[in-house]
Amino acid sequence: MKNRVSRATFPSPGRADKESFDGRLAVQQRVLPTYRAPFFETLAGSCTGGMSLLAGPPRAGEIIPTAEKLEKALFVQAGNIHLMQGALYLCFQQGLGSWLANWDPDALIVEANPRYLAIPAAVRWMHRHNRPVIGWGLGAPPVSGPLSELMAQLWRKFVCQFDALISYSKRGAAQYAALGFPEGKITIAPNAVSPRPTEPMPVRSDEHKGQFSILFVGRLQSRKRIDNLLRACASLKKDTNIGSVQLVIVGDGPVRKELEALAAEVYPAAEFVGARHGEVLDPYFDRADLFVLPGTGGLAVQQAMGYGLPVIVAQGDGTQDDLVREGNGWQIPSDDQQALTRTMQQALSDPARLRQMGAESYRIVSEEINLEKMVEAFIKALNGLE
After folding, report:
1. Based on the domain organization, do 304 and 163 belong to the same domain?
2. Model-level pTM?
3. What is the DSSP letter of 76?
4. Is 176 in the same domain as 322?
5. What are phi and psi of 167, to 5 degrees?
6. In whole angstroms, what is the distance from residue 151 CA to residue 179 CA?
């Protein structure tokens, strides 16, 4: 059995600014989406003792492309047992205990989600061996209604079992603090799926040339509200001060035929180019003037910002709050076509300001929010444990 330091003194004080974690790290995830693999590869490269990640398969019907392996970390498949649906959904992850015993980590990071039933047992295992556990999550959104106090108590009990927390956003960190978790033990690691850009920002003219290009990139699902985007573009067509608007929709999905039929009816100029990935996407981002994500979800926002694009996004769980600001874009209410139309009209009415906002997008993902900065935050949280 390897010698271990106690949780009370792990690691030594004053090491939170180190660039690596000097220990064996274990990371639990319900599933391993392909978009998250680069982050975990980078994090694993910053753990001198190695890293192992446990994850299982998604639910049947879930549209989540998953990674099958990792190059720099030991990837262990869990057996996910999915229980019930919707608001009552729960998941029990088989194999978590044996994975911990076999990997024998110095620290554990788990998803801070009370729906995952095996998490408390994993925390107890680590604490019996005097090792710390960090919870990583979106936050604890307030619940209204007759069960609100009970739910708050359950959330408070759940988060207070952790030695530290990592939040995707400032909003999530505030929610954890509101439950009584010490603010000094909460680290904010803004969600990032792309590394900092290595290429210079595309040069775009700030002169009005009578045509703007609007870009959407993502899976074509109902919740993305691309129907609202089509109708908003149709409304903008009537604004003679803006000129023509080209809408390019990159992606595929279950509602593509429905959207193409709607486009033929309300905005025939819309171009559906299908799914594109990697470098093939470059020309679409380069030619665009504005990136719009009218519905929930969407991982291409940060990517679009890396091409110097201002962005319009729907308000969601708080992960966009730190990324999309007044200086580089707009957050609009979800599923509000009128708000979308007004905001697009405002954006396109001032081309010079649009370019300035694009430059700010580029600065944000270059300096503040990118995959490397996210890893730095995780390492800081790990090295700040006492």
Report:
1. no
2. 0.91
3. E
4. no
5. -110, 145
6. 11
